[in-house]
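Exercise: predict the fold of this chain.
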Amino acid sequence: MIWETQSCNNAADASGCSMLAPLQTGAARFSSYLLSRARKVLGSHLFSPCGVPEFCSISTRKLAAHGFGASMAAMVSFPPQRYHYFLVLDFEATCDKPQIHPQEIIEFPILKLNGRTMEIESTFHMYVQPVVHPQLTPFCTELTGIIQAMVDGQPSLQQVLERVDEWMAKEGLLDPNVKSIFVTCGDWDLKVMLPGQCQYLGLPVADYFKQWINLKKAYSFAMGCWPKNGLLDMNKGLSLQHIGRPHSGIDDCKNIANIMKTLAYRGFIFKQTSKPF
């Protein structure tokens, strides 16, 4: 299990990252002189919607070229998101050809992504002991990179879900004033896999798992095309290098986070895509 946590402000206002506010008030504390300079550099761009293609990168380059620091330029690049935190999740599960039933989660990673900076602030990562099919198939190991020794003796799904809840509380994510939402590459993880296994085992599903953002849908809204090959197509469409190994849960989470950050820089606002249960 890995719990990596960096300092954060759970009470941060999700709307506090608007393009203009950091230049005028709050923690940025820019002087009126700097604000005046920024207005002159950006002109009408300062008040342009960040959804305009290439606006964000143009504004950043203009500010940098006139001697403004990278942090100030980055603040202008991000539109306000609707959530304080995005919780990036990607399960790996037992599998074979033909498919085995029921499938069981064997890797449970979550990245806590700050909605203002789109940077990773904390990581939850555990492997899970399967009980119905405790022996991993060669196909499963080849696909996911998970070997038998990585799941033997690990906590059950029930125990891992308890650890997730403890982590959520520790990170301030259960505070009703903190808005967070899970993000997955597709609907399978939270629409099929987790509720299906919980139903099989007679376990409750926490409410925070019942709403999410499907990154494939978000990408298609932003880019105008459907990523048939998932992360590979999204990375290619955004000219990003793939991080780590495909079908490694934790590496897939890192790719999702990188894609989200890139789309946010381009002005995309992430919204819930799942329908209420």
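Check your answer against the key: Confidence is low (pLDDT under 50) at residues 4-39, 41-58, 66-76.
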